[in-house]
Amino acid sequence: MTEAFVPLPFDRLPLEESRARVTALRDLLRRRRSVRDFSPEPVPLDLVDAAIEAAASAPSGANRQPWRFVVVRDPEAKRLIREAAEKEEREFYDRRATPSWLADLAPLGTDWRKPFLETAPFLVVVFAVDWAEEVLPDGSKHRHKGYYVQESVGIAVGMLLAALHAAGLATLTHTPSPMAFLARVLERPRNERPFVLIPVGYPARDALVPDIRKKALDEIRTIV
């Protein structure tokens, strides 16, 4: 069945307004940092929900929207996630990481300890939905595979981080490996695969971040 088409809601901006908007967004996002020192201060859920809605506007393969955002605020669930994540992280730092990998991580001051998983008021766990089961008109079930799932979810996560930062919230992209424990703790179905774990909250008053720099435009952009 062919989807209906509707007129594109698009307002062409004056050039100076375009420049002003994109530079303002650039400057805002340049201030975003990965935070590991969170305040336990509560965060209104509607801020997180609005950011998720922004993320869910991302493009996706065949518009399958292959994502699920699980917002964790229950202290016991956060404790279980921290325990499981620290177990995997300790294995990584002690056994799986190569010497060069550990050397690259050293300036960031990270280790297997992840207290922020309990301190942050929310954990947003993003799952990639690899397939969905649909009920056909005749009552039979059809497993519909997702398309470009990894790419689609990656775009949505980038938009989520930008939206949370725009709301004045701090975030961290945490990817303990393997992450299967997230599906188990959160009782997610088999078609959902853990993609990233994002603590969300306000930074602690004494929060510190590594003194790093981002590459300049001429280091990352090539014109052909």
Task: Write up this protein.
- The strands form 2 sheets. The protein has a 4-stranded antiparallel β-sheet with strand order 1-2-6-5. The chain has a two-stranded antiparallel sheet with strand order 3-4.
- The protein is globular.
- By secondary structure, it is of the alpha+beta class.
- 39% of the residues lie in helices and 16% in strands.
- A hairpin with a 5-residue loop joins β3 (131-135) and β4.
- It has helices at 15-30, 45-55, 75-96, 99-105, 116-119, 149-166, 180-185, 217-220; strands at residues 67-72, 122-129, 131-135, 141-145, 170-171, 192-201.
- The termini are far apart.
- It has one domain (35-202): NADH Oxidase.
Task: Tell me what portion of residues adopts beta-strand conformation.
Answer: 15-25%
Coarse morphology: globular
What would the average pLDDT be, to the nearest integer?
Answer: 96
Q: How helix-rich are the residues, as a percent range?
A: 25-40%
